[in-house]
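Internal tracking record. Fields below are filled automatically when a chain is submitted to the structure queue. Please do not edit lines marked as system-generated. If the sequence contains nonstandard residues, flag them in the REMARKS field before resubmitting.
Queue: standard
Priority: normal
Entity type: single polypeptide chain
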Amino acid sequence: MLSAIQLRKHDFAEISIVANQSITDEATVETAVTCHHQFRASPIDDQLTSWIARLRLELIQPEDNRVASYTGAIEVFGEFEMHPDLPETDRSKHANINGGAMLYAAAREMVTLLTSRSMHGVVELPTIDPRAFLPKDNEETQEPN
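SYSTEM-GENERATED OUTPUT FOLLOWS
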């Protein structure tokens, strides 16, 4: 069997990164990247081989005394295809873990690209455990909005 999941396409629905204008002397300011994410993946066929997913990342102000160099939001949608030999019981897990990781990588690349040319320099989103994209126990797999 080839790859269990293939990213067929992805599109950005929102890209908004704003440099913090209040930072005037970067040498004296302790900055941080704080990122909050929302992720949903849902099958779009009865065989559970085609999936659509939505990832929204928000760069927010940290809760401690540090400041965010940039704030904003990135939203990306992806379409995935599961290999038909992948057991149906594993497809949701692959869509969430692997699908989430692929969309996060695309968003991470976009943030790095945009901030590399911005006033406070490059920002790389933190690496996260892709299990963070699994639905919480009280969440159902839903259609991405």
